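ok, trying the design again with the full structure, not the truncated one.
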């Protein structure tokens, strides 16, 4: 059994003669929310795409639940739930119908599982309403519900609070905290805003020009000191 649900070893990505990512090492155990923070163009999305097997790795390795993403893609990706860009939702359908559509893509996701997830993301009172009537925070929670249907161990979200109002941001944070603490999930989230991940992630690493410049920071005060010069 591997200790980490997600692990990258010297992960690098080169576009022509430009390195977008250089020797990135991340380790995320169960029950941990890991924040990857960087300015636009720092390499957050590239890191996530390589972890998800959406782009070819130039050098280095990615392991998900112990499986190498290049050598054992199917096994590795079974353990991952993600929202690529924004959630894929049909506005004229209900939340429940949207979940049913995704559930149909999997063999083992039955009605009980859908209901369990609806409860987990706190949408039980509104799940029969059309998505067009949802707030942005509710839409994001529904997107996360879609990503959780197949019971992944790792949830990866690229800038999940982008475009949300403060209430929506709070809803998403509360949900992610619950998933990590109660469901023991490993969660990787990216953000360009350090302050937004404050008091929320268990660990934070800062990425700049494709390199991790501050690694595995854990305490708010320490972050503030560490970032004074960034
Ligand atoms: P953002 O928040 O703007 O999405 P990011 O931190 O996610 O930023 P990436 O999208 O990972 O950054 O990009 C990292 C670097 O790689 C940038 O300089 C970007 O221009 C470059 N890059 C990304 N995709 C490609 C590509 N397909 N071809 C060439 N360069 C690319």
């Amino acid at each position: 059994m591997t200790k980490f649900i997600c692990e990258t070893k010297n992960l690098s990505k080169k576009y022509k003669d430009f390195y977008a990512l250089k020797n990135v090492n991340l380790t995320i155990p169960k029950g941990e929310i890991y924040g990857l923070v960087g300015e636009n163009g720092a390499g957050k999305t590239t890191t996530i795409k390589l972890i998800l097997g959406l782009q070819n790795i130039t050098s280095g390795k990615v392991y998900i639940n112990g499986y190498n993403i290049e050598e054992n893609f199917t096994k590795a990706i079974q353990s991952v739930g993600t929202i690529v860009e924004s959630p894929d939702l049909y506005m004229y359908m209900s939340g429940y119908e949207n979940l049913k559509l995704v559930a149909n893509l999997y063999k083992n996701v039955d009605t009980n599982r859908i209901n369990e997830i609806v409860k987990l993301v706190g949408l039980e009172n509104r799940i029969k309403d059309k998505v067009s009537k949802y707030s942005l925070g509710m839409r994001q929670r529904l997107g996360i519900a879609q990503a959780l249907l197949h019971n992944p161990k790792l949830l990866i979200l690229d800038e999940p609070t982008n475009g949300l109002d403060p209430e929506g941001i709070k809803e998403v944070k509360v949900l992610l905290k619950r998933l990590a603490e109660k469901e023991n999930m490993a969660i990787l989230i990216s953000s360009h805003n350090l302050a937004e991940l404050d008091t929320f992630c268990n660990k934070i690493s800062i990425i700049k020009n494709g390199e991790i410049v501050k690694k595995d920071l854990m305490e708010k005060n320490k972050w503030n000191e560490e970032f004074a010069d960034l």
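Keeping the full-length input from now on. The radius of gyration is 17 Å.
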